[in-house]
Structure formats: structure tokens, C-alpha cells
Structure prediction request, 186 residues.
Amino acid sequence: MEKKPPKPSRERASILIISAPSGSGKSTLVRRLIASLPDLAFSISHTTRRRRKGEEEGRDYFFVTRRRFESMIAAGDFVEWAEVFGHLYGTSKAQIEKSLAVGQDVLLDIDVQGHQQVRQRLPEALSVFVLPPSFRELERRLKNRHSDSPRVVERRRPARKFLIGPSMITWWLTTVSRGPRRICEP
Prediction:
């Protein structure tokens, strides 16, 4: 006998997009949300970048070759994808659809380009854009985390212009060193 998926607890599950420039505190926020909301499905992105120390396949990312990623793009496997600092990142349609089908809310941790694509394709998605307290603090965080070379940190500096309009955002969140400071509607 085939198992039936659990019935959704409400009519339709939600998609929550969280995006931010690197170093804003987005990953910390996402980890805390997942820890406090165990029924929240986390969409694990695919990427062509190398695995960083401590990252695990299938937990942090699905690490694939550029050739594999490009074949997935051609097959229409992504709800969004973008090239960021020379590496490809994308969110699997199938992974999102699987969670939504069983009534699970889905959390997307994606960059600004991906955020815009998802909002265009799925306008009902809720979105949070995480801002650093200041650009000086953002640069300090990028340098202190030691996961990128000084050259990569320098390349991230032009990303100060966030190409996302207020109409695309449901909430704005500013972080500080000790955690979230405030949440407000745009």
C-alpha cells in the first residue's frame, strides 16, 4: 500500500526568500530560523564553487561541475539561477515543488539576482532582504571570516548597490553583531 503524503495544515504553503549581500548575517539568520522552525523546508542550492571548510554535500549545497549546472539550466531544472563572482548558483524547481506539495513552507537562501527571478516567477513569495548595519561593518565581516581571499573580498565591494526595489521586498531586516535589530515593512 502506497503512503499518502501528509495533508497540508492550511490551504497553501508559503515560500520565504531571504537574500542579502555576503557578510550581512543572512546565513546566521537562516540557521536560527531552521533551528526554531523544524517543519520549515530549507531549499539547498546547487553551485559550481568549491566546497569551503566545514561545508557538506547536500546540507550546505549540492556541489556540481559547471558542465552539469549548464545542462540543468538547459533542462529548465531551476526556478532561479545566477552567476555570482564567477560561480553559478541555482534553486531546484523539483525541490521546492516537493515541499509545497506536502504543505511545507519553503525557505530560500539566495542572492539578490536569484531573489528578483523568484519574485518575478512566484510573486506570492514572501521576501526578506537583510542589510548590514553599515558598509564599513560589511567589509569588516567579509575580511574577518577568512573564507575568501583578499581579492575576492575586494571584488565584492562594488556590490554596495543593491539592485532590488522596495516593491520586491516584503520585509527589510538590519543586522548587528549580536543578532537581528529590527524588522519593518518597506
Summary: Residues 68 and 74 are 10 Å apart (CA to CA). The two ends are 50 Å apart (CA to CA).
